[in-house]
Amino acid sequence: MAFNLEIVTPEARVFSDVVDSVVLPGAEGEMGVLTSHAALVTTLKPGELRYTKGSKTIDMAVGEGLVEVTGTHTRVLVEMAINVEAIDEKAVEAAIARAQQDLEAIKEGERPDEVAAFRAIIERSSAQLHIKRKRHTL
């Protein structure tokens, strides 16, 4: 049996369709969702989201967010969701380098909001890079 999966970012609904399963990067580790999963709401960390429909599995890089699971519907609300094919390794590497450079320029204890923002950029970008490079080895 299948269930509805919806992936939404602040910019758009990225995906909405019926799927057989989804694997998410939960805050406590990877979690799988199948039809009739127990209802829950939990946080997600940046990482890999995989969903399966029939014999096809699709990989996406996602940022921090939330997931709501009901018996028939799974809603993923994340700050970003990018299909693995759309990840540009060079651009991601450049984003990591810029964020690290900007982070190093901040004196310890100063501008905590900017430090958190740069660390989030590094974490999201690193997740994208990991997923893209993992795909190269498959």
Write out key terms for the chains shown.
138 residues, alpha+beta, ATP Synthase, domain 1, 2 domains, five-stranded antiparallel beta sheet, 10 strands, 30% helix
Would you write up a description of this structure?
The structure is a single chain. Helices cover 30% and strands 42% of the residues. It is of the alpha+beta class and 138 residues long. The chain folds into two domains: 3-84, Sandwich (ATP Synthase, domain 1), CATH 2.60.15.10; 87-137. The strands form two sheets. A five-stranded mixed β-sheet has the order 2-1-9-8-5, with no helix packed on it. The protein has a five-stranded antiparallel β-sheet with strand order 4-3-6-7-10. A hairpin with a 2-residue loop joins strand 6 and strand 7 (56-62).
The rounded distance between the terminal residues' Cα atoms is: 28 Å
Helical fraction: 25-40%
- Class from helix and strand fractions: alpha+beta
By DSSP, the count of extended strands is: 10
CATH hierarchy class name of the largest domain: Mainly Beta
Computed Rg: 16 Å
Secondary structure tally, helices: 2
CATH architecture of the largest domain: Sandwich
Q: What about the largest sheet?
A: 5 strands, mixed
Mean pLDDT: 88
Describe the strand arrangement of the main beta sheet, using strand numbers: 2-1-9-8-5
Order of helices and strands: EEEEEEEEEEHH
